[in-house]
Amino acid sequence: MLDLDNELKVASEFWDFLGGKGAYVELLDCFERVGIELRTEIDEYFSKF
Fold first, then answer.
1. Each residue of 12-28: b (16+ CB within 10 Å) or e?
2. How far apart are CA 34 and CA 26, in angstroms?
3. Taking the CB of residue 32, how many other CB atoms lie within 10 A of it?
């Protein structure tokens, strides 16, 4: 049903398509930095479960 080469993009293909080459790596870096900065709050939130 889908032309996989032209219609389906996942992970790096998707984000680099939207934001240009290297966008996926930059996005992962942003999530990592925020995760490190907010580690205590994240751990506290999930400790409730």
1. eeebbeeeeeeebeeee
2. 12
3. 10
Q: What is the pTM of this model?
A: 0.72
**What is the DSSP secondary-structure string of 28-40?**
HHHHHHHHHHTHH
3-state secondary structure labels for all residues of 1-17: CCCHHHHCCCCHHHHHH
Distance CA 27, CA 7 (A): 22
Walk along the chain (49 residues) in steps of 10 and give the mean pLDDT of each run: 84 95 97 97 96
* Cβ contacts of 19 within 8 Å, gap of 6 or more: 26, 27
**Distance spanning both ends of the chain, measured CA to CA:** 40
